């Protein structure tokens, strides 16, 4: 009985291979072979080294720019008023059009002024007649006085009357000239060429002399751009201006500047720095400077916002890289450098302004390094890469780039 029980236990614990299907044995064999060969297969299928584009930085003499914000203002602007009072008769322009110097814009009712002119002319004619008569009387008295026919006091009276008539004529002629000016002032003309605003008063309204604003005119070409610089920047510009042989207040020798407007589709505008104020503002510690730009096509308008780039240094050697080659590591800027073996390392850099589409590298590079230009997302320090060398062009033509 004991022997029989042992045999039954062995049969339950270790079933004979004769009772296992052949397909299960084959599957187990292939699984074991796969487990043995897995490490070798993984080693053979390691990912290839990432491919990146590399280049040498541009190294050349540069002039670093400083950027300021400011607004355009017209060189000439005027609020047009009438020199004489009266009722507005006609308006001779369309709102917002360009006008030339001397163009007729408004006409005040001329009838009262023509009547005053005619009256003044009559006063002149009367005064001339009186002068001629007084002169004849004086000459006749001179003749009679020499012959002793009239006393000397009578001659003096005739001389006095003649001189008074001449003075009266001078007064009448002055009144005539004044009446003529008043009539001329009834025609309000453009004092300079520019763009006229809308009319601020309609015909039939009373215009008060030297008070009622009829419209405004601003000049268009050229146009000025005003911006503020701080005290430290002023000293730097003044020093550079002296080295160029100029004076900051007189335009720093006409330094070339570039301005960008809010519309990124518009190209930059080139002008010259031509003026700075003669003192710093005590409240803000800044000085206002001015640049002048040609504006023949009229794109730039008074009051328009812009960013101006002013040369902030004299020419000096500089290292340039495209912005896409510069990464960030927390609060610092870095670039990825590739050695001869393709090993990546990171170098912190200090960046400057943009020049010709490139970013100035003020510190961190000598210009001899090979830098990753494209593919920064695929690299990190310590990784080996496959690099494709390229050459950076002298200038990047890209619209809408900002400093």
Automatic annotation (TrEMBL):
Listed Gene3D superfamilies: 2.40.30.170, 2.40.420.20, 2.40.50.100, Helix hairpin bin
Coiled coil: 155-189
Secretion signal span: 1-43
Biological processes, Gene Ontology terms: response to antibiotic
Record-annotated Multidrug resistance protein MdtA-like beta-barrel domain positions: 250-309
Subcellular location: Cell envelope
Residue intervals of the Multidrug resistance protein MdtA-like barrel-sandwich hybrid domain: 77-214
Major location category of this protein: other
GO molecular function, one term: efflux transmembrane transporter activity
Family stated for the protein in its record: Belongs to the membrane fusion protein (MFP) (TC 8.A.1) family.
Name of the featured protein: RND efflux membrane fusion protein
Taxonomic source organism: Mesorhizobium delmotii
């Amino acid at each position: 009985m004991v022997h029989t029980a042992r045999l039954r236990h062995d049969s339950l614990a270790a079933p004979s291979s004769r009772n296992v299907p052949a397909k299960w044995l084959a599957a187990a064999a292939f699984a074991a072979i796969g487990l043995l060969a897995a490490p070798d297969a993984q080693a053979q299928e390691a990912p290839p080294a990432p491919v990146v584009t590399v280049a040498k930085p541009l190294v050349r003499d540069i002039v670093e720019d400083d950027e300021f914000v400011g607004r355009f203002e017209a060189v000439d602007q005027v609020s047009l008023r009438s020199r004489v009072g009266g009722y507005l008769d006609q308006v001779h322009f369309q709102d917002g059009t360009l006008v030339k110097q001397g163009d007729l814009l408004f006409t005040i009712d001329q009838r009262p002024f023509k009547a005053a002119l005619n009256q003044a002319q009559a006063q002149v004619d009367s005064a001339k007649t009186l002068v001629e008569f007084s002169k004849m009387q004086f000459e006749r008295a001179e003749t009679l006085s020499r012959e002793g026919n009239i006393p000397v006091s009578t001659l003096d009276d005739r001389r006095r009357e003649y001189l008074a008539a001449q003075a009266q004529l001078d007064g009448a002629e002055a009144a005539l000239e004044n009446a003529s000016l008043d009539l001329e002032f009834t025609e309000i003309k453009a004092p300079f060429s520019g763009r006229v605003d809308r009319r601020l008063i309609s015909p039939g309204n009373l215009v008060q002399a030297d008070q009622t604003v009829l419209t405004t005119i601003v000049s268009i070409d050229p146009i000025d751009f005003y911006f503020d610089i701080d005290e430290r920047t002023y000293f730097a510009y003044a020093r550079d201006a002296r080295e160029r042989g100029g004076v900051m207040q007189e335009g720093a020798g006409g330094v070339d500047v570039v301005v960008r407007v809010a519309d990124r589709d518009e190209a930059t505008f080139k002008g010259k720095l031509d003026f700075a104020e003669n003192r710093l503002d005590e409240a803000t510690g800044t000085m206002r400077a001015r640049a002048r730009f040609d504006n023949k096509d009229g794109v730039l308008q008074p009051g328009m916002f812009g960013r101006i780039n002013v040369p902030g240094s004299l020419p000096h050697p500089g290292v340039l890289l495209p912005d896409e080659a510069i990464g960030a590591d927390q609060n610092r800027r870095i670039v990825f450098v590739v050695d001869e073996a393709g090993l990546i390392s990171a170098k912190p850099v200090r960046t400057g302004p943009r020049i010709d589409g490139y970013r100035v590298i003020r510190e961190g590079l000598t210009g001899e390094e090979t830098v990753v230009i494209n593919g920064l997302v695929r690299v990190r320090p310590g990784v080996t890469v496959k690099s494709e060398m390229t050459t950076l062009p002298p200038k990047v033509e890209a619209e809408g780039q900002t400093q």
